[in-house]
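Pilot study result, target chain (218 residues):
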Amino acid sequence: NDVIGTFHVLEACRKHSVKMVFMSTCMVYDKASDDNGISETNRVKPASPYAGSKLAAENMVLSYYYAYSLPVTVIRPFNTYGPYQKTGGEGGVVAIFIKNKLTGKSLSIYGDGTQTRDLLYVEDCARFVVESGYADETNGEIINAGLGKDISINELALLIAKDKSRIQHVTHIHPQSEIPKLLCNYEKAKKLLDWQPKFSLEEGIQKTEAWIQSTNLI
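Predicted structure:
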C-alpha cells in the first residue's frame, strides 16, 4: 500500500508539475556506530517490512527526479512525538509512557531498554517538512531531521515516570527489528535549510503531557 500509493501521488505530481516531499523514516538505517550520529550516507538496513516499503518508495520517488526532472525531496525524520500522537496501540513511546504515568499504569519496556532513540518534537518536525518543501536546494536530496541527542528507553521511562518502581520490562515481540542506537546527524538540514531543533526533550515532554492532560485521552 505504501509503495503503490506513493506511485499514484507521484503520477499526479508529474501531471500537474507539483513538488513532492516524501516522508520516509529513520527506521531505514542501520544502527549508529558512534556519537557522530547517523548521516544520510550511512548504511541502510531495512530490518522490518515497514522500513523495506519506505526504501522501495524512496527509490521510486528519486527515479521521478532523475527520469522526469520532477522536484522531489526525501526526508527521514527521527522519532517524532508530541500533541495529537496516539497514546495506545500504534502510538509512540513518549505518548504511551505519559498516558500510562497519568493513569497509574506501569511503563512497559520491550527488551532490556538499552536501545536508544533520537526524539524530535512535532513542531520542529513540522517546520522541517514545510521548509524542505519550499526550498529548491532540497530537490533530489535525502535529508535527516532529529534532535541530535539520543536517550535509552530506560532513561526515557524514568524521565517521564520519575519513579523506577513504575517501570517493568517485558519480552520483546520483534527483537530482530529493533535498532540498538538511533542518533541523528542533521548537519545536512542545517546546511541546506539553516534548520535545527528548537525544543529540548524535556520541553517537548512537558508540552506533550500538558496536551494529554487537557484531552479525554486519560
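One observation from the pilot: The chain has a mean pLDDT of 95. A full batch analysis is planned for the follow-on phase.
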